[in-house]
Every structure is written in structure tokens, then in C-alpha cells.
Specification:
Length: about 70
């Protein structure tokens, strides 16, 4: 894969997505046991990182074979 341009705007956008997802899960995380907390944080990570991948692929014109 060629160089990926993660502009300041995109980085800020992803940071906002993470903040929003974490705030949405915060109340539920406070009542979870350790295993529940881990599951919830993994779900937050998947949701945010999935959007990061979408944005990177959109910025590179989609997936390219390697």
C-alpha cells in the first residue's frame, strides 16, 4: 500500500468518533465486571477502528491488491 494521508482533520474526526463511542458506553461500563468491561471496550474499539479503516480506504480509492 502506498502512503496513507491521515490529515489533521481526519485524525480529529476519528478522535471525536472515539469520544462519542466511549461516552455512550461509559454508564454501562461502570456497572460491568472485568469481563463485561473488556467486551464493551472491544466493541467500542471495533466500532471506531472500523470507521477508521473505511476512511483510510476512501482516501486511497478503496482496497488494492497486494
Amino acid at each position: 500500500m502506498d502512503s496513507i494521508d491521515l490529515s489533521e482533520d481526519r485524525i480529529h474526526e476519528v478522535g471525536m468518533l472515539f469520544e462519542e463511542a466511549l461516552r455512550a458506553a461509559a454508564v454501562e461500563m461502570s456497572t460491568d465486571d472485568l469481563a463485561g468491561l473488556e467486551r464493551r471496550l472491544q466493541a467500542v474499539g471495533r466500532a471506531v477502528l472500523g470507521q477508521v479503516v473505511e476512511r483510510v480506504l476512501a482516501g486511497t480509492g478503496g482496497a488494492r491488491g497486494g
